[in-house]
Amino acid sequence: MTSDLPKSDLDPENWDAFRSAAHALLDDCLDRQQNARDLPWQPVPQDVRDSYALPDAGVGMDATSLTKVLRDTILPYATGNTHPRFFGWVHGTGMAEGLLSEMVAAAMNSNCGGRDHGMVYVERAVIDWTRRQMGFPNTASGVMVTGTSQATVIALSAARLRALGPDVRKDGQGNDRLTAYAGAGLHNSARKALELMGIGGANLRLFPETGAGLDTDALQAQLARDRADGAIPFALLGTAGSVDFGKFDDLHELADLAAEEGLWFHVDGAFGAWTRLADAPWRALSDGIERADSMACDFHKWMYVPYDCGLVLIRDEAEHHAAFAERPSYLAPMEAGLAGGDPWFCDYGIDLSRGNRALKVWTAIQAHGTKKLGAAITANCQAATQMGQLIEGTQGMALAAPVVSNIVVFTADDGLDGGGQSALNTRIAQDLQIAGEVVFSTTRANLPCGKDITCLRAAITNHRTTSDDIIRAVTAVVRYRS
Ligand SMILES: *Cc1c(COP(=O)(O)O)cnc(C)c1O
């Protein structure tokens, strides 16, 4: 007996109506991009927040009502990082081409875990382009991930496999105690990776970084102590662009040290790796990154592509593959057809089902070329230099540290005591955000005078920022401090 299945009504019933509503929404999205300068962060009004609640039964709307909701209650309440005076944390801006690539990606809805289809080849092309920019050998492999946090887990998993052998996948770490080493400016995501992997955050050893760089004598003394205690030192973590001050470790020095001590050398280049595309003197900051065993970087920060989008590169494809490859029978490869096309990205990372992250990068590089992207990165470093000079030239303001790349950390009035400065800087950050004038974030820093205070912080990974925006930002701080 056969009976007809009920027809799904999850596809539009009226494609003409859907098409015209979608075209109108595309125009709204384009307006939003084109008018980014007029659209700073704004708090979400309570009634709008309330409207986000989903009733048990959902709603059920036609395309016209749905696109109206998206336009009126969703589109205006973004993080604000599309605005030219958004300098908080390390947030990328996204470029107009992102709209095109995300639209095509959604239409294709590819699963990039593996198999043989176009987006797998596009992802390989993006990885290969990045590999060349970073100076990694063509024996390297990579996989696109949510961001540097996930990339670090993948890199350190390969590092652990080298230290403990392939049985660690089957047996776990047992009583082996692994230890990792880094400068004090290391991003918190590395500690999280070690926690998640069961290595434990306490087995991460951080060493002070003075003007002369990382204290390698202290590091080597600790290594010797750890070995004597029966620990297994397995990784040295370098930073190309620290999240606090935008500082760079001497990567050649760390590569030498890792080689001497038999450690896996990983570099967190979340944003700073992209100084590879910048002009002198900034390019030289990341010299030596090509010697790493692995590195992590984000496209969603300093490559201006939409969230989320990061990459891990691993020098030796075999070590990368050994840490993650697994093909149960339902994923068996075939000689030809859709299940062909080795390698599959699911053998190089955590995710099996994977969205299309590569197309937005590929589209950005196709649209602008490496040189123009590099010029934007150079311009951001120049903007940070300009901001630093304005701050130094303004009565009462002081830098917490010299500007080395794209990050500026400063206090609005160094005439106050420590508590007074912290309170003032926090208030200014908040007031300027609410006013929609400038977004600074804050961070704790030790001023040259010895005071440990909450400072204002600008990280410039914003291709829309002009000199005038920098002047307006500093002027706004002066205006708001009284
Ligand atoms: C942002 C950042 C991270 C974390 O990267 P996500 O993409 O947010 O996961 C790690 N290290 C540095 C230096 C960062 O700036």
Structure description:
The chain has 482 residues and is an alpha/beta fold. The protein contains 14 helices and 13 strands. The strands form 3 sheets. A 7-stranded mixed sheet has the order 1-9-8-7-6-2-3, with helices on both faces. Strands 10-11-13-12 form a 4-stranded antiparallel sheet. Strand 6, helix 10 and strand 7 form a beta-alpha-beta unit. The protein is globular. The chain starts with 14 loop residues before the first helix and ends with a helix. The mean pLDDT is 96. The chain binds pyridoxal-5'-phosphate. The site of pyridoxal-5'-phosphate has 13 residues, from helix 6.
Content of β-strand: 5-15%
Low-confidence stretches: none
Assembly status: single chain
Helical amount = 40-55%
> How many strands, which pairing sense, and closed or not: the largest β-sheet?
7 strands, mixed
- What is the topology, as strand order, of the major beta sheet? 1-9-8-7-6-2-3
Overall morphology: globular
Structural class: alpha/beta
Give the topology.
Blueprint: H1 15-34, H2 46-51, H3 63-74, H4 97-108, H5 118-134, E1 141-145, H6 148-164, H7 168-171, E2 178-183, H8 188-196, E3 204-207, E4 209-210, E5 213-214, H9 216-228, E6 232-239, H10 251-261, E7 264-268, E8 294-298, E9 310-314, H11 317-324, H12 358-392, E10 398-399, E11 407-411, H13 418-435, E12 441-446, E13 452-459, H14 467-481
Helix pairs in contact: 1-3, 4-12, 5-12, 6-8, 6-11, 12-14, 13-14
